[in-house]
Inverse folding.
């Protein structure tokens, strides 16, 4: 096709195929797709393509319409063995949490309605009782995510004043969340205490003055400092802060309510332990080790939480009804002592090794290729840095494992895998039981 043979927009729109596009996708979208495809084809011809056909234009328009009318956020099968995979949406929520979301999303609900009184109620009420029962905290506040929780706490309590933090904790957790930047945004002044590897009690004591609003402690999240290192314990920080009559805010990051040591992992300092040690406020995510929806949870002293609640930022950072529904249902699993059985993240962390090995063996058998090898799963999500769990994976040898991985990403639903030592690995730990059939079908096609 030469440039002058390129059809007009109207010309394409009058073809029988275009009538079907208009019926299926509506005229405005079909028109945009035709315009864009003709522009693409014109550029291709101008830059030397001489084999363009009428059919290529039609195929191009169809592909555009299909892509534009499919949601870009899709479910995937996570066969990487990384349990809290931030890029893949962190925690899958429990069946009960899904049901709670579905109900309030599809219908009206008691989001801000008091059924007893028949009038306006409080959005904050929905998770408050569960959170207090579970942790012994005086009060709670739920916001959009943990970054928002930290920002709100610092803004409401330390604007134009000083915040002390150990240099060992000036972290960036990825996705642009850097403690120094959040401090700057809050209007608080950062006072770095100690050195990169060692911060002592006396460093905090000498930094504390009239202008200090609070001491911030931040979980290291995704790294570990090893070797010649030290930093004051939370109890010590609380003790130092008490002398200045100021609070300690503890950004726990992941915020475990269960003891990770009971699952063969290192012990992750729990929310309950932080409160018991005297943190005035504790912040953590809803979708990391808690295993719920994206949310930021703040627990602690009532007087401080009232200040946070009254700050205008709190309104801007408030959670929506679907978040509160999922979080509420997730917390009930903990209250009933069924978290390990009902919450997918804990099911995956606690999955027995022999069960994983049996699943991997079944997959290998069904695929008729690969081998079952010992490997490691990762918790991820900025919790338990460097901590892994022993697992069993199906390993597939290939000259081009990256091509195989790319093909699997094109499956429906896409399958996300890991490559190690030129082999493609499938870790059953993070594949939900309902996803197995889809996974094996996609694999069979690729093999
Ligand atoms: C993950 C994390 C955050 C951010 O939490 P989001 O819920 O992703 O906003 C903040 N602080 C620490 C220490 C974290 O690990």
């Amino acid at each position: 096709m030469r440039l002058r043979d390129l059809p007009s927009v109207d010309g394409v729109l009058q073809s029988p195929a275009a009538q079907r596009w208009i019926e299926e996708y509506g005229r405005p979208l079909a028109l945009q797709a035709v315009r864009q495809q003709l522009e693409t084809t014109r550029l291709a011809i101008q830059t030397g393509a001489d084999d363009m056909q009428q059919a290529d234009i039609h195929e191009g328009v169809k592909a555009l319409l299909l892509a534009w009318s499919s949601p870009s956020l899709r479910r995937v099968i996570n066969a990487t063995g990384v349990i809290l995979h931030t890029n893949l949406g962190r925690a899958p929520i429990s069946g009960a949490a899904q049901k709670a979301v579905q109900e309030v999303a599809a219908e009206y609900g008691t989001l801000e309605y008091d059924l007893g009184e028949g009038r306006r109620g409080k959005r904050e009420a929905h998770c408050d009782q569960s959170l207090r029962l579970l942790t012994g905290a005086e009060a709670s506040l739920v916001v959009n995510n943990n970054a928002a929780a930290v920002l709100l706490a610092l803004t409401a309590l330390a604007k134009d004043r000083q915040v002390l933090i150990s240099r060992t904790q000036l972290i960036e957790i990825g996705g642009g969340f850097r403690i120094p930047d959040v401090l700057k945004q809050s209007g608080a002044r950062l006072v770095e205490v100690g050195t990169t590897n060692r911060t002592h009690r006396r460093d905090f004591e000498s930094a504390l003055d009239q202008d200090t609003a609070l001491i911030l402690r931040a979980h290291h999240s995704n790294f570990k400092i090893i070797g010649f290192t030290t930093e004051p314990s939370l109890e010590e920080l609380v003790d130092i802060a008490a002398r200045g009559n100021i609070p300690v805010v503890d950004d726990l990051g992941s915020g475990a309510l269960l003891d990770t040591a009971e699952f063969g992992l290192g012990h992750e300092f729990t929310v309950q332990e932080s409160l018991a040690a005297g943190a005035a406020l504790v912040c953590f995510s809803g979708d990391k080790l808690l295993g719920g929806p994206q949310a930021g949870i703040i627990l602690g002293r009532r007087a401080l939480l009232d200040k946070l609640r009254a700050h205008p930022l709190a309104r801007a950072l408030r959670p929506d009804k679907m978040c509160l529904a999922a979080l509420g249902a997730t917390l009930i699993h903990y209250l009933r002592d069924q978290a390990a059985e009902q919450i997918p993240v804990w099911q995956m962390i606690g999955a027995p090794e022999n069960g994983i090995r049996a699943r991997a063996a079944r997959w290998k058998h069904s695929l008729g290729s690969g081998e079952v090898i010992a490997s490691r799963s990762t918790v991820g999500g900025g919790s338990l840095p460097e901590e892994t769990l022993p697992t069993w994976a199906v390993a597939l040898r290939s000259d081009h494992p990256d091509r195989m991985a790319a093909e699997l990403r094109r499956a429906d639903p896409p399958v996300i895998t890991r490559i190690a030592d030129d082999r493609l690995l499938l870790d059953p730990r993070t594949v939900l039981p309902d996803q197995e059939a889809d996974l094996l079908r996609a694999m069979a096609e690729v093999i």
